[in-house]
Amino acid sequence: MKSAVETLNPTRVRLTVEVPFEELKASLDAAYKKINQQVTVKGFRKGKVPARVIDQRFGRGAVLEEAVNDALPKFYTEAVNEAEVNPLGQPEVDITELKDGELLAFTAEVDIRPVIEIPDYSGIEVTVDAVEVTDEDVEKSVEQLRERFASTNPVERAAAEGDVVTVDLEAKVDGEVLADGKADGVQYTIGSGELLDGIDEAVTGLEAGGEATFTSTLKGGSAEGKEAEVTVKVTAVAARELPELDDDFAQMASEFDTLEELKADSRKRLANMKQYDQATQAQERVLDELLKLAEVPIPEKLLEDEVRTRKHNLEHHQLGQMGLDLAKYLEIQGKSEEEFDAETREQAVKGIKTQFILDELVSTEKLNVNQEELTEHLMRRAASSGMSPDQFAQAVVENNQVPVLVGEVARGKALAVVVEAAKVLDTNGEVVDLEDEEETEAAAETVEAVVEGEGESADAEQAEEKQAEKADKPEA
């Protein structure tokens, strides 16, 4: 077999292949055998029809077509290996010549991984937020814990801000009660803003049995966006009582004996969280600077496929699970479809560039992934997927995704190498020294977010939260 490679552009090549006919013998034999099993010829046992009879009855062309289809993948793979290119996706094959008994010639155009020159990244310098835990941060954290242990007690008085009221709601539009405009036994904390606009003013000052009417724009349901007359009846009033902030509270809410120990632990946990956030921020900003330095051509077909995949995953998986469609999602996000398409394309370009350049770094730096690193990564991915480690591992093996996980860890290690060479300062001008463990974990997550499009996931989650705020409000 003879082959030649022609570079069409930095991300696409054309392979020209010529195969002497004798190299098709094995495929021709296989073609005759396959056709033999499929046909019946009077006078011959099934599977015992001579080749000359098959040629006469069904045509030599049918045999040649079967043989060529069988042989092409093998010859294409040999040509790819000989040319030392890394193909992406399926080739476009064109048979240019087929002379029975003499020659098979074909061309194959295919996208390839571009040759990337790793830039000098030693001069990268980024600034990240300083790790600072204030007394106010600690107090807020303890107060949130205190809120979780709040109790409610019925009271016989008028409702006031902060009270939990139980209400029945009825909404009318143009004097007619909506089919989905009634909700009974709804619990609402006055001042929380979680229900209809105007309800705080309506229920404040009412005792159990009290009733009021107010006008509000409906945020959901069959008459979404319309003005409605809403009648609210208070059926119960309860006061929220927070536990005293003392040692008894610390013992009830945690494993600590004193409030001071609880606060010290809160400060430590907040510092750890901010350090991890700082490491993630460093990874993201260093990666952005690396991508600015590197020239990375993008195969157009690969880009179109990636854009299509990201849109499909968002529409049919993330949004579908949230009960949203793309139109509703764009409305919540305040984006036009053109803006969404442009952003998706930009994120896809960044994801492909990130994968290409970090894969090249893995190769040039000869980075390997050991079993411990792979196991730790698998455990984290399992946790984020909501599956047990055993279930996740089984799914990975069954779907032949182990190389994908290895690639994710390897790219994280490659990014960690770049961060280690970069200068990272905090907003106070202090040099940030990231711990190796923090650096590797944050790097793997950063790379996943960029390559797999988790930015879209975050946007979808924000949209779900906004939608949930509306859903918590009665359809009225």
Automatic annotation (TrEMBL):
It is found in: Cytoplasm. Residues 162-215 form the PPIase FKBP-type domain. InterPro entries: PPIase_dom_sf, PPIase_FKBP_dom, Trig_fac, Trigger_fac_C, Trigger_fac_C_sf, Trigger_fac_ribosome-bd_bac, Trigger_fac_ribosome-bd_sf, Trigger_fact/SurA_dom_sf. Its EC number is 5.2.1.8. Residues 451-462 have a biased composition (Acidic residues). Residues 434-476 are annotated as: Disordered. Residues 463-476 have a biased composition (Basic and acidic residues). The keyword Isomerase applies. Keywords: Cell cycle, Cell division, Chaperone, Cytoplasm, Isomerase, Rotamase. GO terms for molecular function: peptidyl-prolyl cis-trans isomerase activity. The keyword Isomerase applies. PROSITE patterns: FKBP_PPIASE. It catalyses: [protein]-peptidylproline (omega=180) = [protein]-peptidylproline (omega=0). Pfam families: FKBP_C (PF00254), Trigger_C (PF05698), Trigger_N (PF05697). Consists of 3 domains; the N-terminus binds the ribosome, the middle domain has PPIase activity, while the C-terminus has intrinsic chaperone activity on its own. NCBIfam families: tig. PANTHER family: TRIGGER FACTOR CHAPERONE AND PEPTIDYL-PROLYL CIS/TRANS ISOMERASE, TRIGGER FACTOR-LIKE PROTEIN TIG, CHLOROPLASTIC. Belongs to the FKBP-type PPIase family. Tig subfamily. Involved in protein export. Acts as a chaperone by maintaining the newly synthesized protein in an open conformation. Functions as a peptidyl-prolyl cis-trans isomerase. This is Trigger factor. It comes from Streptomyces chengmaiensis. The gene is tig.
